[in-house]
Amino acid sequence: MRIYETTLTQNILFELIRAKEQVNSWGRVRWNIHIFESNNEKTNGNDIELFVQFGGGYLYFPTQAKIIYNKSLNRVKLGGGNYPPMDHFVPTMATQQINSLLSYASARRGIPIYLLYNFVNDTFPVATRCGIRYGIEQFGCSIVDAQHLFSKYVSGGSWTIPTFHNLQPRKAFPWFVLVCCFNQYRDINLLMAEFFPDSHSSLKESLKIYSETDVFQDRGWRDIDFYNKDVTTEFSRGFEDNNFTFNPRFRIVLGSDTPVFRK
Q1: DSSP code per residue over 38-91
Q2: pTM for the whole thing?
């Protein structure tokens, strides 16, 4: 059965909200996670605006989700896999989809990234980021600098499709790094050089730190509600329209946890 990026994205968002409700009900700490949905009906179901708290504001990551493709033999997944959906041409824009993502990020002074949904029947040695050890299992959901993909794998408008091992673990990193590692940095240039070196060279002068007002008082977005949805409407919007430019449907805001003090 074919599994779409949109399906995985929606599942992840739902699980984040459900986990947040459970953690916050314990009363010891509050997860500072917020998820919004665009008021614009013409959006792509696997395009995401991601905000991550940094210092007194938020870094902005326009995010394109892509799923890995694996060959199979007798229903057993083989090691490897690559990302053919990255090579996506947008007819109405007469350009590759990655160009749309990069232009969008540049106009809004953010860092363009790809969110990769992975599975490989393989292993590699344990890696470490910011003092946290992890293995291949944490790369089920990983992040890679879109500017790196463009510089390395796009030439003359044509892709050389990267494999899982082209990106993991050296260039891509697990999703958790966004919240577990970024708050250890105080210097934006050091953070960019460590995690997004290709974007750093082109964005370091224009990168914007967004304020809480920018993020939370934007009237183009509403709180997402997984419990009161018209299923028919959701399915009609569930799959990506290949003619769309980058047009995010979801906004995820990841802030620092706050302890709950009790008298």
Answers
A1: ES-SS-EEEEEEEEEEETTEEEEEEEEEEE-B--EETTEEPS--B-GGGS-EET
A2: 0.88
